[in-house]
Records
---
Amino acid sequence: MSGVPVLEVRELTKHFPGRRRLLRAAPAPLRAVQGVSFAVRRGQALGIVGESGCGKSTLAKTIMRLIEPTSGQVLLDGRDTADIPRREFARRVQFVFQDPYSSLNPRKTVRQTLDAPLQHLAGLDAPARRARTAQLLDLVGLRPEFASRYPHEFSGGQRQRVGIARALATDAKVLLLDEPVSALDVSVQAQVLNLLRELQTELGLTYVFIAHDLAVVENLCDEVAVMYLGRIVEQSPAATLFAEPRHPYTHTLLSAVPTIGPGTGPRLRMAAPMDAAGPAGPAIGCAFAPRCYRATLRCQDEPPALDAALVGHPVACHHADDTDPEDHAP
Amino acid sequence: MPEPLLRVRGLRTHFALDDTVYRAVDGVDLDIARGEAVGLVGESGSGKTVTAMSILQLIPDPPGRIVDGSIELDGTDLVHASDATLREARGGRVACVFQDPQTTLNPVLRIGPQITEMIRRHQDLGRAAARERARELLDAVHIPHAARRLDEYPHELSGGMRQRVVIAMALANDPELLIADEPTTALDVTVQAEIIDLLRELRERTGMALLFITHDFGVVAELCDRVVVMYAGRVVEQARVDTVFDAPSHPYTRRLIDCMPSLGQGRRDLATIPGVPPALDRLPAGCAFAERCDVVEEACRSGVIPLEQVAAGHLARCLKPGARP
């Protein structure tokens, strides 16, 4: 717990205005991210999990300042990123995208792809860029001659390595990774996860890792935040979260993961489908209440705060200390 | 063993492009008994989808062609079947569900007509009766307010609901075999769990057989009786689900299972399989996995390695089945 966190997000909120139609009242804005706060210390990996539409990618883009937040702050080493010049920010915080097929320019060689940040952000001259490119390729486990090849000559795993090399080109210490392995085959996914873990140790990187695959998140992250409809509903060290989930939504996500081994069979079905609620959710009260097996009248009326008082780590649930989910299963 | 519902023997489907022959499927043997659920597992490019398309003769020709092998549905040869027989089979006795419900459904048609078209193509029903049947089908896949949904367009439904509609269409003519090609890959885990539970329930109720194509062993473990593992266009192992996980015979199966991160293991290095699968236009002699195998020996690199029985109901295409380094 030493010093200032590398990356801190305070009450970050992003609303997208609804599309106005002629002669109709303006629709309610889409609340993609609603008051999200977290801090990541140097060398740590924070995983953010949730279903599609929960706002995890919007959160990442807002942190990256690819889209402007409606309100809230992002701090890098204690400094508000709104005050950090664009280039300096881009040197220090980088992004790894999900799809290594569409995130690399098909008409540029690896060298040209890496040259852009090295020239414009790091200001290196040609010989220095050449040396750095070789170094980067070595770092991500690609052979030096790959520098003159085009993306189509690579497999998915190799492309994702190029994407990681590009993110590391300017010596960024903070990486946001948005589903970096979900488009890859299992055996390749394992290689990329191992690489990310090695690089983190070797270079002291800080990760914000967005994924929907809980096993992948557990494999890479120290801490996990679970998002539901724009809010963090539970956050704790990975080991605690996976062993003793406290929010009913975390329970639901975990029980949905297909597992190998004895005892697989019809699982505990713990929450109603999303369609029961719809992404707008109730106007007041807990957003998860319409799907929740624990919901009481209080949940309909009073939104739960993300509070560590009940169980020792932050959970946004009035009944987080309720320990018998099985009793409530339908 | 009684006569299987589907019997595939020595299937080879090749694609010829620019004077190069890609052997996408190059040796698939597959039996599916009535009411049985079989998982077809493998990584991208292993030939899973081409196998499924070959069964229903849906391979575009050219460039693709079934060059060898037989496919029998209940004793009827499908490879040389007439168009009429195939029309009868497709969507009738054998139905398909594909990965992306977004592209399976016609975006400019309401749900109702898409399902009734499927019904009336195979059954002699009037409009009103077909519509009633469509509503029943939506009920059967647990779509709320089924009657209202019939008048909606695909974009008005969530991904999970769309996949339910596609499954309802597949069930329209009481198929004996449902081929599902990665039907849950594009869905969230919670929705995936709902679809798996739905397929399990439908199978119990209708007794249909299932060929479930996936790259996810976890899904197979939850849904299937038997697993068929493919590598570089060939079946390399077949066994009951529990056998494959407890005692895999082929080194590829063993190592693929080891690669999977699973919950409850914390931060740790994952096992990997070094190297990449061979190019399908340059498959090596002998075992296609030899280059990456940790128990390879000289004999593995020549000749044809047959798919042989290692125990009752357990086949492997390996000279040293069950060997460990």
---
Amino acid sequence: MYEFDWSSIPGALPFLAHGMVVSLQITAVAILVGIVWGTLLAMMRLSSVNALSWFAAGYVNLFRAVPLVMVLLWFFLIVPHLLETLFGFPRGSDMRMGSAIAGFALFEAAYYSEIIRAGIQSVPKGQMAAASALGMGYAQSMRLVVLPQAFRNMVPLLLTQGIILFQDTSLVYVSALADFFGAASKVGDRDGRLVEMLLFAGAVYFVICFTISQLVRYYQTKLKTA
Amino acid sequence: MGYSWNWDVLLQPSATGDGTYLGWMFYGFKMTIGLSLSAWLMALILGALVGVLRTVPNKALSGLAAAYVELFRNIPLLVQLFIWYFVLPELAPAALGDAFKQSNPIVQQFVSALLCLGFFTSARVAEQVRSGINSLPRGQKNAALAIGFTLAQAYRYVMLPMAFRLVVPPLTSEFLNIFKNSAVCSTIGLLELAAEGRQLVDYTAQPYESFIAVTLAYVLINVVVMFAMRRVEAQVRVPGYMGGH
């Protein structure tokens, strides 16, 4: 029978906490940029200008067809090299954190834009017509009338996507960046206690994601009855 | 930008002398397809079972099914993969764990990846099956029970034949996901498509060609699956329902 030894966890907590900060930073920035860029993509996709809507459709379909791991590998192995040659960045500068955030944000924007597009389309057409009748331009009607209603309906889906994104940040493992999971597996390797550290990491992710998903569900039922 | 493109590198004999670099890629392609399809089969069977259990009146059974879904949905795929690969062989009964550790490394990687993807995806399939069953008009179940069907018969002859047809379109995106998620298995050393991409970068020193080729292979899988599923969806469409004729 396997003998558990959890003793390496207490001493490693500061290192693990630092890893968690990295995970949360990547999540927060990627959600923010992802939603802004995703909103723009959704508006382009619904625009009557063909060039814009084709660009948005191509972008979204390309990113949705490729595994996140592949996108991250592009951003870790190829994009830094490209930036070095294009902009003369010093060779070998550590761009892993920046690459990770850029990769996640650009990838998640594709998924956010699909949620936001559905949200915009769920707002009755009459709202746009009424806004135009009041003399608002396209940008004004979008900003003041359509998007506020669309986002209100989308909040649960956007949050759920945020939970998925938080879980996916563990994939920065492919770049050896010490996020929470990377930190846990490093400590496990160092102390020969990989079994305990992996179970501990799994438990921490579970508690965080389960709690937030229950809150989202609670908010969703409140939204329905409101 | 000073990069010399050389697509011919893919056709050159590989450094290890076993065919060409394109051959490496094809090996990874087959691994990705084989792994994803077998995990999908497992996810469909388990997911259908768990999804049905979530809707039964028995509180213990539906609670157990709910716990199953929450467990596999709230832990990152990578963590689950590492637990299957590194942790469970240690915790399993000694005979089983040792047999696993002494088997061929490729078998170890494949089995862990299969179990991981299968269970992970089954939780998502279960959610779709549950919402398919819940979307049926309540009268169907009541009518079945009223004419004397047992609960099992009501599921077997009335509810499931409808629910399984309704659930096909939402399952398409899960089917697409399993191919993409299989790329995570490169982290335990399984030589699937993404892992071959990394190898290609290391061996050929032509990173752009290698990654573009592998990325296009994923796009190809995506397109083929999408067209195939569109045909399946047309076959199982229920007349009178959303998207029916």
